[in-house]
Design brief:
The structure is a homodimer. Chain A is an alpha/beta fold. The first copy, chain A, has 14 helices and 14 strands. The interface between A and B is large, with 105 and 104 residues.
Chain lengths: 415, 415
């Protein structure tokens, strides 16, 4: 057809997903090919079991809300934006939260709140592809919409813990830190740090990435030694500064619920309140949390979330919401790190879905084609068995049987 | 957050998919919200049962292959193309076939052929949105790759029939026409019509859209009355012209297999060979078929496919392939037309997947939250029951129970 040979590489930073069974290669690259469907299968299993239902939105959005909402990189140099052939400024969504907000706003009066919704979809950001980051990435957006702060914060938080459990992650392999935006405000106010709020938030947000000394120095640039130590002691959970923070937290019902849940389940080692969880520039309005890999060489955030009662503000509507949006790659890196992908084949449900009983059919002559399509296959289908057919009747039968076994057939029928 | 209220409409020609259970509205719009997941659920069920496995590729592709392969509208004014921030000319894929070709070419030596592969994904074309067409549409790409013409043509053809059956479509609601690109060439050659080949193909391709007289006139513009009648009689399956066409078809093993399958299953009324199936500009190389709605007011093509042994030519590789790519909207229009969506709730598997046993939990006091999360929910999850929680303990219990029933709960537990 064409004289020119075109490159068959996927667009830089995007990924093709090959079916596991088709690849002849070592297990390393098999993991890479299939991990995503495994990860999201586990997500879906947990979410559907807990009353969440799935929706979906288009990958194309108007650029307007991203420019207005996020500004900065997300609405700017990281945005995959272009002008369509009708002159509309559109983009490939860089995140899923705005799409769910738009969908809810669009049918606000026709929806039965509260919503327990999730979607699993792709997003695009123009970044340098690196470990744990690619230009196209897949995220699950998980939200409870329409419930004020209270038990729903705990419900969502438990969902995130159950997702970690579903992968077989041991408690000591990760830690969960939580905090509250309004508690932070109270703390700033009571200590008369209002003028330094932005600077303090920035240092707290970055705290886990620097060592103690560097953080101290940054605080002492504008705070007294006493105030600096007060912050450090709160972070280190010692003395009266920490007691004060803990006391302030009692004002928020959802923090009491989360704290009691952790205590009742003896999870205090692994899950704790701390002022260093800020969740950056994102517009959270209450409870916030983040899950980190415990590997000291690999101290990354897996995902986080929280309450954002301003979800629909851009669309002129008001509704409370709490949610989180874990991506595929950080979860994959965590699972790989703790060798939780090595035995994914042992997960029973995963096996049933992906490795049903497959029968290999060795056709001995073309005359058998009707027996194949009219008798054998309908029979197999009715028994919930799937099949693979070798039509190559001129070839050696033993070779053909072996080939079908290699392709995953558990049983061979000669026809 | 923002003073400006942004429109919450989806980008023109794209669709949001709301979960069925969340919508308070009439059944018409419910159909529209949920039909796609139902349609593709049925596709998947048939395909997985018949040994096909799923893959997935990115929505972004280089524009190069589309410009080279398709030219015309698909590589031009219909293409959603743009330049990324690194200067690469990319597009949102207008079809899925090129992506699967690229993926196979990219791992050509690492794949275990034959492949029975499918993907279900979105494509974009800049067109005026209309009935059965939108700018974003979803397609299933279904291929057998690595098998020469023969039983695999019949296998794929049977898959397409089984998909129609899976929706409960009656035999008289659609017809299936098939043909063969090389048979057409033989026919043109034997009748000495080589100089008119392009014009004849064009008229045949358009035959079903015009009446008999108009088609006759178009042929008589360049053919003798005898030749014109020869073509018409072949199309109308009468006299020696039709016998000649039928005889020519015997040269192709796959046509014999398909014909015998139809005869053995008494499907001749519904499924037949005809020269009017051309499949337009597409690069088929052998067996081709197309399925049409039988409604005289709505005489549309649902989908079609065939053999394209040139699948990987653009990437400098050679491999035989046969496939088809049904879209969601034409199938939806057909199902709506024949009232096959009215009782989608009756499909047992669909019900099991989408309507599991849901328990409504009425929380009587906040103190019960731990009993809820530590006892009741783990217990329900272990029984494969899903749940919905009403935390609103200050509200009237009867109202709360009713509300949970409306939200699809089959059973109410007060805690």
């Amino acid at each position: 057809m064409s004289q020119f040979v075109i490159s068959s590489n996927a667009y830089k930073g995007t990924r093709d997903f090959y079916p596991y069974e088709s690849i002849i290669t070592n297990s390393d690259s098999i993991d890479l090919q299939i991990y995503q469907s495994y990860i999201f299968y586990k997500f879906k299993e947990t979410l559907l079991a807990r009353g969440f239902i799935e929706y979906s939105s288009s990958v194309i959005e108007s650029i307007e809300p991203f420019v207005k909402k996020s500004g900065g990189d997300l609405g700017g140099k990281q945005l995959y934006n272009f002008t369509d052939k009708g002159g509309r400024d559109i983009c490939l969504r860089p995140e899923l939260t705005l799409s769910v907000a738009r969908m809810i706003a669009n049918k606000f009066d026709n929806l039965r709140f509260p919503l327990r919704w999730f979607s699993i979809d792709n997003c695009f950001r123009y970044e340098r592809p690196q470990k744990g980051r690619s230009r196209e990435f897949w995220q699950a957006e998980i939200d409870i919409v329409g419930l004020e702060a209270g038990p729903s914060d705990l419900e969502l938080f438990v969902v995130s813990l159950k997702i970690m459990e579903s992968f077989g992650a041991k408690e000591n392999s990760y830690r969960v830190m939580y905090n509250h935006r309004l508690l932070l405000e109270d703390w700033i106010q009571i200590n008369n740090w209002k003028d330094y709020k932005v600077r303090i938030y920035k240092i707290l947000d970055n705290w886990l990435k620097l060592d103690r000394e560097s953080n101290l120095k940054l605080l002492e640039e504008f705070l007294s030694v006493e105030d600096t130590m007060k912050i450090v002691m709160t972070i280190e959970k010692t003395g009266s500064p920490w007691d004060e923070y803990l006391n302030l937290s009692k004002k928020y019902k959802e923090l009491i619920l989360v704290n009691d849940y952790i205590t009742n389940n003896n999870l205090n080692e692994n899950i704790y309140l701390t002022p260093v969880i800020i969740r950056g520039q994102e517009y959270y309005t209450g409870f916030i949390f983040e899950i980190f890999d415990n590997d000291i060489n690999n101290n990354r955030s897996l995902f986080g979330g929280g309450r954002f009662d301003n979800l629909l503000d851009l669309y002129g509507k008001k509704i409370p919401a709490v949610g989180f949006a874990p991506g595929d790659l950080p979860v994959f890196e965590f699972l790989k790190n703790w060798k939780l992908l090595d035995n994914y084949e042992n997960f029973e449900v995963w096996k049933i879905v992906n490795y049903p009983h497959k029968v290999g059919i060795v056709l001995s002559t073309e005359n058998k084609v009707f027996q194949l399509f009219n008798d054998l296959i309908p029979n197999l289908v009715s028994q919930n068995k799937t099949f693979d057919i070798d039509y190559d009747y001129e070839r050696n039968t033993k070779k053909r049987r072996e080939n079908l076994m290699k392709r995953g057939c558990k049983e061979i029928i000669e026809l």
